[in-house]
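Incident review: delayed structure delivery

Summary: a single-chain prediction request sat in the queue longer than the usual turnaround. Root cause was a stuck worker, restarted by the on-call engineer. No data loss occurred. The affected request and its eventual output are reproduced below so the record is complete for anyone auditing the incident later.

Affected input:
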Amino acid sequence: MRFIRRALLGAVLLVALVAGGVFALSSYRMSRRIAVHDSEPVIRTDSASIARGRHLAIAIAKCVDCHGADLGGQLAVDAGPIGQLIAPNITSGAGGVLSALSDAELVRAIRHGVRPDGTPLRFMPTTSFNILSDEDVAAIVAYLRTAPPVDRPSRGSVVRPLGRLLYVAGQLPLMNESELVPHDGITRRTPPAGATAEYGAYLATVGGCTGCHGPGLSGGHVPGTPPSFKPAANLTPTGIGQWSEQDFVTALREGKRPDGSVIDPFMPVKYTAQMTDDELRALYAHLRTVPPRETGTR
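Output delivered after worker restart:
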């Protein structure tokens, strides 16, 4: 009996030690300041730049998918025991964060996933936005500055113990993607617009395709999501190699596969539907260059 009590006490102490270690390590990594040495794009406020920024924010980068159609913030994802992704109000209205940020700070938030004090933003798709060219990130900033103000308090995301454990174990990279990208000045450029694989690769990255479908676009379980989440589709030739260009365009415009089945609503079809014909054709051209992979190998 004494042995059982000691074993139980030891198990409790071990769990407490592990939990404390996970909390301490995750807190340290999430509060570590990051020095950013990057270019500061010139923000142009002409109508063409603002229109480009609006298109990027809605159809390509899909800022509205997390922050809401009015950009006023919302509960974007409730992942139960993992936590809640609550996107802030990014307008100039009361409760919004925009008025408190300079253009340079906003660029660093978008492209590097850091706050003005250098600490990481949670659940910011920095690996997608880090490659944004100066022209495109400046266009997004120009659009956000002109978006209608929304008066709504901003709330922070909630990360529960399981979320912290997954983050420390490397299974929840979205928690802090600022750890995964370069923060020194690198050369960025927007490839010439057109229905080319090169432009499609840029759109696929900025558009966050790899965030759900994996770096190799082979789909499968999305890291950090509950078991109830449906797996992402395999976008390599193994998965959609038989799709024609028109099949692909229809899927991203109407949310239907070639066999008529409906694509899961987690796929942001209402935003990809707003991409231009050339952008969708460029994505298709890029996917034709991706090596085939078994589903779920990410």
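Verification: The chain has 13 helices and three strands.
Action items: add queue-age alerting; document worker restart procedure.
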